[in-house]
TrEMBL record:
InterPro entries referenced in this protein's UniProt entry, alphabetically: KIB1-4_b-propeller, SCF_F-box_domain
Official protein name in the record: KIB1-4 beta-propeller domain-containing protein
PANTHER family: F-BOX PROTEIN (PTHR47123:SF25), F-BOX PROTEIN SKIP23 (PTHR47123)
Pfam families: Beta-prop_KIB1-4
KIB1-4 beta-propeller domain boundaries: 90-374
Superkingdom, taxonomy of origin: Eukaryota
Amino acid sequence: MAVDWSKLPTELLGLIALRLISVVEIQRFRSICPSWRSSVSFADINNPLLHIHPNPLSVILRTKDNELIGLHGGASLSGASFSRVTLSSSSSSSSSTKSWLIKYDSYAELNPGTLRLLNPLSRLRFHRRFKFVDLMKFTVSEIQPSYTIHSHCSKKADLGFKRVVVAREHLVDGVNHQVLGVCTDGRIRYWNGVTWTRVKDQVAHFHDIIIHQGLPYALDSRGILWWISSRRGIFRFGPQLDDDVAESCSWRRLRSLVGGSCGKFYIVDRIVENNERRSKGNTVDPRYIEMLHDDVGNTRGEAFRGHFYYTTVGFKVYTVDDDLWRWVVVKNLGDNAFVIGDEACLAVKADEFYGCLPGSIYFCDEGECEIKVFKLDDGSIETMSGGSQSCFQMFVPSFD
């Protein structure tokens, strides 16, 4: 017997709507039929992530007398979505189906048919803005969300944070969202609704945190993987990375964690030149220093010396060998490609996206919006403004 979905009770439709997170999910829900559209408006969506306004970690101290002046004036959680865009007429079972990869601002606006695109790999605005995307012609499917903390008194994103994630726990009466972050002092903290709280039992210095298959995992400076539970603490999940390559005066590594298919994890070391350039116009009053404030107290973080740029010269990738139970160097990603962004890192299947190169790593250098690709097989780097444009086609959707 066929089910008439248009006649579902309004109460049930309301419960479904409460579990919708992204703008596109809400739009597609309302486009099903008139009864679904009338059951909920954009104003009715009570997305708890939109209402999280955590106090920032930064505390301002006067260095002369060590006098506490107080917290910055508020902060808010900002969200974006990495998504696939596919022609709706394309058959999902067809091997020729291709997609574009976009990142759009989840919270900026809830106007039907409007998406504000962001640069997929940096926090800079995209050079184009598409309006009235017809969801009857294009299918937009979320791959992975990303988050930042924005200070209300500073243009700097992620003030006090290296990475921010949100763990979603689906309950009978809705969805519980747990906001966690790796901070500039290497500690992991979560927002308890009142203040930032340190995850207990952590002893390492952490570089990155991700949500993989619904659970939070973090990577420390020794290359050890940890599973995070804000209620029960932190638990070791993987071996230590035995890498005796020391950083030199001419280069250093920026370490990220990427979750792949079949439960695999990857460590991605970005090798950058130590020729940092201070950004213009970004200076700080020398009377002030940056501190971190949480449930324990005030902790001196990394002193804010202005923003610096760097140049990427290569990457090195590791994964765990299940038989040897150790991290090994990856020389071939197969059909996979990595997208290394400021807010999140993800693995994609190259044959699912236009022009995507298998065995490659897409990235932007700090402070730049130009997308580049690193080829793991030969170590070469190609820029989007260079000769060939085909390998960057996945980032240039055509909504015409």
